[in-house]
Amino acid sequence: MSRYVALLDGHAGAYGVVVPDLPGCSSGGATIEEAVANTQEAVTLWTDEMVAQGGDIPAPRDGEAVLADPEVAAAVAAGAALILVPLIRDSGRPTRVNISLDRGLLEAIDEAAAGRKLTRSAFLASAAREKIASEG
Fold it and tell me: Tag placement on the chain: N or C end, fewer CB within 10 Å?
């Protein structure tokens, strides 16, 4: 999975994020958490559009390489923070897998899924996406 370095800047009520390796890819939100979540969606949409247009998805640079960019270094010096944004792209092809879980955990998963009107698979996929996104 690719992780892009992004710049987070702003203040309470107005945070903005730009992804230097994906020209024009930016997002924002009222809170840091909202801005990060919106940026994860923006990265996915940006890459999907690039592929739809027949282009290539740029490989992410590591933090040191991004910081070597004078514009990024200036933004960080002015108070911007670097964050990692994972790229999770759907392939459109479901794959059947066999996993082993404790029976009690599986019952809790099924109960939580039912409470959200989701299938077990949809619930597990959603939980995995949230976990990956929260850890950058």
Answer: N
Question: Which amino acid appears at position 95 of this protein?
Answer: T
Question: Which residues, in sequence order, are CB contacts of 79 under 8 Å at separation 6+?
Answer: 9
Percent of the chain with pLDDT over 70: 98
Number of structural domains found in the chain: 2
Residue 80 sits in the same domain as residue 36? yes
What pLDDT is attached to residue 91?
A: 76
Which candidate, 123, 2, 78, places its Cα nearest to that of 70?
78
* Greatest C-alpha distance within the chain: 54
Give the pLDDT confidence of 90-113 residue by residue, as tens digits. Answer: 877 888 999 999 999 999 999 999
Distance set, CA 70 to CA 16, 24, 65, 73, 75 (Å): 19, 18, 11, 5, 9
DSSP lists the bridge partners of residue 90 as none
H helices within 53-135, ranges in order? 63-67, 70-77, 103-115, 120-134
